[in-house]
Specification:
With 423 residues, this protein is mainly alpha-helical. The protein is 81% helix and 0% strand. One of its GO terms (cellular component) is plasma membrane.
Amino acid sequence: MWAIAFACAISFMGIGLVDPILPKISAALDATPSETMLLFTSYLFVTGIAMFFTSWVSGRIGVKWTLIAGLTLIVVFAAFAGLGGSVDAIIGFRAGWGLGNALFLSTALAAIVGAASGGSRQAIVLYEAALGIGMAVGPLVGGALGEISWRGPFFGTAILMAIALVAILVLLRFPAQSAAERAAARAAAPSITASFRALGNPALLSLSLVAVCYNFGFFTLLAYSPYPVEAAAHAAGLEFGAHELGLVFFGWGLALAVTSVLVAPVLTRRLGLRPVLFVTLALFAVCLVLLAVFTVSLPVLVVLVVASGLFLGVMNTALTEAVMEATDLPRSVASSTYSGVRFIGGAIAPAVAGPIAAALGVSAPYWMGAAAVLLAILVLAVTGKHLAHIGAEHGAPAPRGGTAAEAAPELVEAQAIGVGDAS
């Protein structure tokens, strides 16, 4: 369980790891910001597409071997990225990294629950803690290693993931299953087209559209912000390298982790899911507008980037809970569909932020991100008839004798994936 949790933290680190070294990669490889930000796009796009199929894959080869396949791909392509001699090569290697990340993360929760001896609730808390730690520490590690060389974060990830891979190979065990049990589990696994057909559900489609727009704003901030922050620092006569950028985005990730785990559940329980979604989206849009207005002020940029993590943490948790409550689809299918769509939405933002900044000015990507988040609010309002039921009983206590799955929707997905494992 601890080996998987360690690997989860390292995997989530990969999302923000490159943030502090984007300007350094641009300088070292003579690449434009538009080209360098494609490191996010290739990673997120492949992760998103693969998420549509990972529940089908893990239902057939099992949790353990899906984890091993994902970790192996991450180790190989992270090392190749560190060896890359051009930005195009690194973009391609990040795509392979994204495939490994999709395979690993889609089954990590199932594996933690299956391996835990302290109960499913503790296992899920451990998974959420690993997510928060990874998101917070990723930019910090990227900045520290990136100060030595832009290749350092890639090699560091490969080494840490290789350690996690060996630990999982040695430590992870599942109860043996008979041939009949394995055949029955495979027969019950989702079909290869289940995630695509799930988008025909009006409630899930509505929330998926909200997620696309919201994640466009999210990754506009995450992928683009290192460049205006660095430019504002230089204009102020300050040296602002990978280490300093890493500290800024460590603050952002820490804020995100704290509110996603500690604050969001309290707000959604007291106020309801839809009000929290509306208010948080509005606050995030305001944050992006302020970033667009104050692009030349380093202190304001740093404060706004860190503060945005507070809103993003709440939004991530509330939107995921809404997806889990919105439909009667199998939660493994709803989760993988939503995850795929949100990653694809995030992949679009870095691809367009650079060209728009070059054509319209440094503030333009933030205005574009704010417009996308406002569009998410509009979609949420227009599709209200499909979402009126979400959070209706959100504050009600779980019935006595209820299952852990009823108290923690993520467990349903974990069990649905984990039942097909053949150790």
